[in-house]
C-alpha cells in the first residue's frame, strides 16, 4: 500500500511525516509523540477542517481520511483524559488567559478555536479572545454595545453606511439571529481598545480594524465567508494545558506573519464558502436562496433573518 506525506504542527515546530495508508492511528500517535515531546497518554491529535480531535484509535490512517498534503496538529489533552479512551476536551473549561506575555523565540503555533455556528459566531469569537473561554451569552452584551454606538452617532451611521435606517439597524443587530460583519467588528475594536485582525480565507487577505488607533494589543479572527472563529497561540515558551494566548503586542509582527501563512494555506486549500454561490434556506418561510445578495434582499423584503446553509 502506498505511503502519504503529511505535516505535523506542534509546540516543538513543524515536521513532515511519511506514513503508509494502513498505518494504525495508535502507531501514528507514537510517532507524533516522539516528535512533539508530548506523552502518548496526554496527546490530542486534531485533523480536518475545522480541526477536530480523533475520537478513537482502532482505525488506520486511511480510515481517518488522511491524504498527502494534509496537516495534523498535536496538542496536550488539557482535559486530563486519555485519548485512547475516546474522550474529548470539555469545551466549557476555563483557560488561564495570557495577555501580556511575548510570543517568544519559538515557532508560533497558531490554532483555531471552533465556536458554534449560531449566527453569533463573531461575538462568541471576540468573547473568547477577550476572556479566554467560550461564553455563548457574550453576544447579548456586544449587540447592545453596537446598537448604542450606532444610535449615538446617527450622522456617521447613516442609511448609506448601514444599508437601512439607523433605528431599523439598531433593532436588527439586537436580534440574536442577525450576523455580524465589518461594521460590528470596527465598533467593537473601538469599544474594547484592541486591534482586531480578520483573516479572510477566500482572498487570503487580513483586514485590520483599529490599525490607525495605535492600540497596544491585537487579536485574530478567521472568516470563511459565513463563519468566524478565534485564533489562539500555543508556543514553546508557554506552559501546556490550561495556558493560552489570544492577545498579542501590536509592535511584534511575528504573529501577524503566522496569521498570514495560515490565510495563504486556507486560500490554497479552498477552506472557505463562496458567498456568491452558496445556498441558504430561510427557516422562517422555507425560501431557498443562492448567494449573499439574494439572502440580503430576502431579509429586506420579509424581515426574516433565520437562515441555514442548505
UniProtKB/TrEMBL annotation:
Q: What is the top EC class of this enzyme, as a single word?
A: hydrolase
Q: Molecular function terms in GO for this entry?
A: cysteine-type deubiquitinase activity; zinc ion binding
Which GO CC annotations does the UniProt entry carry? cytosol; nucleus
Presence of keyword Zinc: yes
Keywords, A to Z, come to: Cytoplasm, Hydrolase, Metal-binding, Protease, Thiol protease, Ubl conjugation pathway, Zinc, Zinc-finger
The secretion signal range is none
One Pfam family linked to the record:
zf-C2H2_OTU1_C
Origin, by domain of life?
Eukaryota
Does the record's keyword annotation contain Manganese? Answer: no
- Reported EC number(s) for this entry are 3.4.19.12
Q: List the catalytic activities from the record.
A: Thiol-dependent hydrolysis of ester, thioester, amide, peptide and isopeptide bonds formed by the C-terminal Gly of ubiquitin (a 76-residue protein attached to proteins as an intracellular targeting signal)
Q: Where in the cell is it found?
A: Cytoplasm
| Annotated InterPro entries | OTU1_Ubl, OTU_dom, Papain-like_cys_pep_sf, Ubiquitin-like_domsf, Znf-C2H2_OTU1-like_C, Znf_C2H2_type
Domain OTU, by residue range, is 110-234
Q: Name one GO biological process term.
A: protein deubiquitination
The role this protein plays is: Hydrolase that can remove conjugated ubiquitin from proteins and may therefore play an important regulatory role at the level of protein turnover by preventing degradation.
List the protein's name: Ubiquitin thioesterase OTU
Which source organism does the UniProt entry give? Sipha flava
Q: What lineage is on file?
A: Eukaryota, Metazoa, Ecdysozoa, Arthropoda, Hexapoda
Q: Which gene encodes it?
A: LOC112679342
Amino acid at each position: 500500500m502506498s505511503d502519504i506525506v503529511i505535516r505535523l504542527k506542534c509546540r516543538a515546530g513543524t515536521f513532515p511525516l511519511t506514513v503508509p495508508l494502513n498505518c494504525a492511528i495508535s502507531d501514528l500517535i507514537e510517532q507524533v509523540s516522539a516528535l512533539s515531546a508530548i506523552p502518548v497518554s496526554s496527546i490530542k491529535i486534531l485533523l480536518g477542517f475545522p480541526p477536530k480531535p480523533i475520537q478513537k484509535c482502532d482505525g488506520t490512517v486511511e480510515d481517518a481520511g488522511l491524504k498527502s498534503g494534509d496537516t495534523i496538529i498535536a496538542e496536550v489533552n488539557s482535559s486530563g483524559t486519555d485519548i485512547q479512551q475516546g474522550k474529548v476536551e470539555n469545551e466549557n473549561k476555563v483557560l488561564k488567559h495570557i495577555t501580556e506575555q511575548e510570543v517568544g523565540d519559538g515557532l508560533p503555533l497558531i490554532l483555531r478555536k471552533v465556536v458554534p455556528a449560531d449566527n453569533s459566531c463573531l461575538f462568541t469569537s471576540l468573547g473568547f479572545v477577550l476572556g479566554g473561554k467560550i461564553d455563548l451569552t457574550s453576544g447579548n452584551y456586544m449587540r447592545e454595545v453596537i446598537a448604542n454606538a450606532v444610535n449615538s452617532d446617527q450622522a456617521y451611521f447613516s442609511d448609506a453606511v448601514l444599508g437601512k435606517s439607523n433605528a431599523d439597524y439598531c433593532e436588527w443587530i439586537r436580534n440574536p439571529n442577525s450576523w455580524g460583519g465589518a461594521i460590528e467588528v470596527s465598533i467593537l475594536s473601538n469599544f474594547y481598545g484592541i486591534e482586531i485582525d480578520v483573516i479572510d480565507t477566500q482572498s487570503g487577505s487580513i483586514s485590520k480594524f483599529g490599525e490607525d488607533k495605535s492600540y497596544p494589543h491585537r487579536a485574530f479572527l478567521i472568516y470563511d465567508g459565513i463563519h468566524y472563529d478565534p485564533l489562539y497561540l500555543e508556543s514553546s515558551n508557554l506552559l501546556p494545558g490550561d495556558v493560552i494566548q489570544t492577545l498579542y503586542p501590536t509592535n511584534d509582527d511575528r504573529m501577524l506573519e503566522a496569521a498570514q501563512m495560515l490565510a495563504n494555506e486556507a486560500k490554497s486549500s479552498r477552506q472557505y464558502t463562496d458567498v456568491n454561490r452558496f445556498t441558504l434556506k430561510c427557516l422562517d418561510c422555507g425560501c431557498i436562496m443562492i448567494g449573499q445578495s439574494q439572502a440580503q434582499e430576502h431579509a429586506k423584503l420579509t424581515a426574516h433573518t433565520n437562515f441555514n446553509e442548505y
